[in-house]
């Protein structure tokens, strides 16, 4: 039995972006502390703020945060994990 291979160069396409990648997001809300958990309460969702920029925030502060949702982050805290890159007063 003879096996033949297709001739020519195989067609390739640019890789697609993974569907679970998120765009940079900026949102505004009020800080709530729950033990060691730093949460940003917005009109639509409660974000669990993670990363050095979130350290030192105080309960009741109104802030604008920029970062990326991080649904793979595991924590005992409630809220949707959000990896913060910047925090500014709102």
Provide the gyration radius in Å: 21 Å
Overall morphology? elongated
User: Spatial order of the strands in the main sheet?
Assistant: 1-2-3-5-4
Helix content: under 10%
Number of strands: 5
The first-to-last residue Cα distance is 74 Å
Category by helix and strand content: mainly beta
Count of helix runs: 0
Q: What average pLDDT do the residues reach?
A: 86
Give the amount of beta strand, in percent. Answer: 35-45%
Secondary-structure element string: EEEEE
Biggest sheet overview:
5 strands, mixed, barrel
Low-confidence stretches: none
Write up this protein.
This protein has a five-stranded mixed beta barrel. It has 90 residues and is mainly beta.
Briefly characterize the structure.
The protein is mainly beta.
Task: Summarize the SSE layout with pairings.
Layout: E1 25-34, E2 37-41, E3 46-50, E4 62-69, E5 80-89
Parallel strand pairs: 3-5
Antiparallel strand pairs: 1-2, 1-4, 2-3, 4-5
């Amino acid at each position: 039995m003879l096996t033949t291979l297709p001739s020519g160069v195989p067609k390739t396409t640019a890789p697609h972006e993974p569907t679970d990648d998120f765009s940079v997001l900026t949102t505004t809300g009020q800080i709530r502390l729950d033990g060691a958990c730093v949460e940003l309460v917005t009109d639509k969702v409660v974000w669990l703020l993670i990363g050095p920029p979130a350290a030192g925030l105080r309960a009741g502060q109104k802030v604008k945060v920029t970062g990326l949702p991080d649904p793979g982050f595991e924590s005992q805290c409630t809220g949707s994990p959000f990896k913060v890159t910047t925090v500014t007063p709102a």
